[in-house]
Design a protein that fits this description.
This protein has 12 helices and 8 strands. An 8-stranded mixed β-sheet has the order 1-2-4-3-5-6-7-8, with helices on both faces.
């Protein structure tokens, strides 16, 4: 009998424990009244969502230029990263919402037809926070993104400081005025004509709309007291072509005493960099969720 008990215990110890996996639903459709197209989004629900009655914190996860609501899942491995972090206790269970931002830079269009920013703030956030069991309060709501999405996370947070408790910007598409002025016409029109206006040249590109959406301008125009309750995390690789804007944002925040974390790691503008950055970013966000 003792031998049988010993063998049973031994086998139990050798049996691997498999972490539960969360559920992913890709390319769901939200019908907006503000924009005239179906808004697609993907959602990650933590492993214990179906077995619990609790409500969860939420992270809005924004993709980069030319990608869509599936990028963070297919290439960024966000569900696997979330599963791992939750299972290890690095951050608490949370829901991820990944909207399709198209190539909008998460702004309203210059011609007034595509009001993506208005749709996201006024419609999509309220919709998903009723559709799923989400703690719909600032302290349990965060936003993160890479490249264009990193810019979007910063811009949306700075323009709506009452909504988000944490902001994580990975390799954010933050450009200085000088960089915008000196961009080639082809590059400027390719990236920015739809949101800031077509065929603008030189100083004419520094419009009021540009300044109202540039993180480097917003940190000066948003009242300091509104930013005190927000935790910022900025991460850009040492070989990333977007190093200048991210560095200037760090310097500007330091000069203005805006609390933030700033990381420069070995790497470039790549998914391998963002995957590791997402784990650390979610851990940073989780510190606010977990207290």
């Amino acid at each position: 009998m003792k031998s049988f008990i010993f063998t049973s215990i031994f086998l139990i110890l050798l049996t691997p424990s498999f972490a539960q996996k969360g559920k992913v639903f890709e390319s769901l459709i939200f019908k907006s009244k503000i924009v005239n197209y179906p808004v697609r989004y993907s959602v990650y629900l933590p492993a214990d969502y179906d077995s619990s009655q609790r409500s969860y914190p939420i992270v809005y996860l924004l993709h980069g230029f030319g990608d869509d609501e599936t990028g963070w899942i297919q290439f960024g491995e966000a569900p696997e990263i979330a599963d791992k972090g939750i299972d290890e206790g690095a951050f608490p269970s949370c829901i991820l919402i990944i909207p399709d931002g198209k190539v909008s830079w998460y702004c309203n269009g210059a011609d007034g037809k595509d009001k993506w920013e208005d749709m996201f703030i006024s419609e999509l956030i309220p919709f998903v926070e009723k559709e799923y069991r989400i703690r719909a309060k600032k302290e349990f709501r965060a936003i993160a993104g890479l490249s264009m999405g990193g810019y979007g996370a910063l811009m949306l947070t700075l323009r709506n400081p009452e909504l988000f408790s944490s902001c994580v910007a990975l390799s954010s598409g933050t450009f200085s005025d000088e960089e915008i002025i000196n961009q080639s016409d082809e590059q400027y029109n390719n990236y920015f004509k739809n949101i800031y206006g077509e065929n603008l040249k030189g100083d004419a590109r520094l419009t009021d709309t540009w300044k109202a959406h540039s993180p480097l301008h917003l940190i000066h125009s948003v009242p300091a007291d509104k930013l005190k309750g927000i935790r910022f995390y900025i991460d850009c690789g040492d070989d990333d072509f977007l190093y200048k804007g991210n560095s200037l944002l760090h310097i500007g925040m330091r000069d203005l005493n805006i609390q933030h974390e700033y990381r420069v790691r070995n790497g470039s503008h790549s998914w391998s960099y963002w995957r590791t950055g997402l784990f650390d970013g979610l851990r940073f966000i989780g510190e606010k969720f977990h207290r």
